Amino acid sequence: MSKKRVMSGMRPTGSLHLGNYFGALENWVKLQDEYDCFYSIVDWHALTTAYEDTSNIKENIFEIAIDWLSAGLDPDKCTIYIQSSIKEIAELHLILSMIVPLSWLERCPTYKDQLNQLKDKHIATYGFLGYPCLQAADILICNAQLVPVGEDQLPHLELSREIVRRFNYLYGEVFNEPQAILNEVKVLPGLDGRKMSKSYQNTITLSDSPEDIKNKVKVMVTDPARIRKTDPGHPSVCSVYAFHKVFSDKDIDTIKEQCTKGAIGCVQCKKMLADNMIKYLEPIYTKRKEIEQKPYYVREVLENGTKKATKIAKHTMGKVREAVKINI
Ligand code: TRP
Ligand code: SF4
Q1: What is the CATH number of domain 208-288?
Q2: CA-nearest residue, atom 3 of ligand 1
Q3: What DSSP assignment string belongs to 187-252?
Q4: 150-191, pLDDT tens digit by residue?
Q5: Domain locations in the chain?
Q6: Which atom of ligand 1 is nearest to 7's Cα?
Q7: Looking at the whole model, is its pTM more than 0.90?
Q8: Which of 45, 89, 105, 118 to mutate to test the pocket of ligand 1 (most atoms within 8 A of CB)?
Q9: Is the CB–ligand 2 distance for residue 273 below 6 Å?
Q10: What is the pLDDT of residues 187-196, one digit of tens each?
Q11: Residue 233 Cα, ligand 2 centroid: separation in angstroms?
């Protein structure tokens, strides 16, 4: 039996941080061994919130491609491409936009939230309302069965499924109903204890060097109740401990016990964390340095990915045009 097809995407909005890595990319890397995976750098989606200043998009596309490749996406196992190089996605989006009721888009929770949150950005546009419709086009253009996403994306996926049902009902069975695979999430707070987010400037990125990691761990917030080394600590409120849970598997019980008893100081505890993080992340960093030595490599990967994705996209659009009866 042929492998099931997986599709997912990320907007090119700057270098990925560890939250992005553990929230999505790490899962993508695992999936490529088992499935026929299509991973798209969704630059049209980035336009929905960045249309006023597009100066960084090109650079961000290459940045994210390097992040993906250094984190272990392997172009021999998966297909990596830029959304805007597959024009068929735009055509499919247009056709889907004809059949998606406005009410489905307007009631989408991400739409309402973002309108509220990004008030100063003038994002109340036609394209922004249609964001989930474009996402459906991404998924359906390669007729993917499985879509690895975070929980926040479930409403979009449900909308894709509804669009599929409506399309198939109107024009005949063309598409699969895509299923979400929920990414297994490891939650990492930011350096300051808030959610890790670029806008808070509290991230550790995949491109940080071992030296950067050491320095960032040094400034991480710990349990504020600990002033002296002998003060009993509360690992559950400490960011360093939250990181240990991800990076220091086998030492985790000892750290908890020693912190709670006041037997280990935060400086030492951080040193252990930095060492473990560097051990874990060094292969990614080394791979990045290798890729940076070969300037044409990333372009080549994207070109090959585009070729593969285009072939499938053309096939899908052939079926769509025929079903909708707009091919002459
Ligand atoms: N909306 C997704 C996000 O912000 C990105 C995305 C665009 C996507 N197209 C997709 C995810 C298709 C999965 C499948 O995370
Ligand atoms: Fe956090 Fe470690 Fe300090 Fe405990 S010893 S408060 S876990 S940094």
Answers
A1: 1.10.240.10
A2: 10
A3: --B-TTSSB--GGGT---BTT--HHHHHHHHHT----TT--STTSPP-GGG-HHHHHHHHH-GGGH
A4: 999 999 999 999 999 999 999 999 999 999 999 888 889 999
A5: 5-188+295-324, 208-288
A6: 14
A7: yes
A8: 45
A9: no
A10: 899 999 999 9
A11: 6
